[in-house]
Structure of YCII-related domain-containing protein:
Amino acid sequence: MRYLMTTKPTDAAPNENLYMEMGKFIEELTAAGVLLATGGLEPGGVRVTSFGEEITVMDGPFAEAKEAVAGFALVEVRSKEEAIELTRRFRKIVGDGESVIQQVFGP
């Protein structure tokens, strides 16, 4: 089962220990074959919306930037519970904030 784990931005400044702990965590998941992809996302981006025949393209940043996704990890695990446990470990490393876990369907 594949899960996309996303995290929202926070105002907390990262410290050197965070980078070391996150590096160890990423190495562990990569070695176990669990981590498929990971990365951070730009805060603004481009929003593309459609309504009927009209397509609108708008450059960010957007007013609701705190609701945006700041980073992601795509993992392949045996169960939803395993994805939750990985996310718990991630949150312990990065501290206060919010992450969302969604199962990925398809090939």
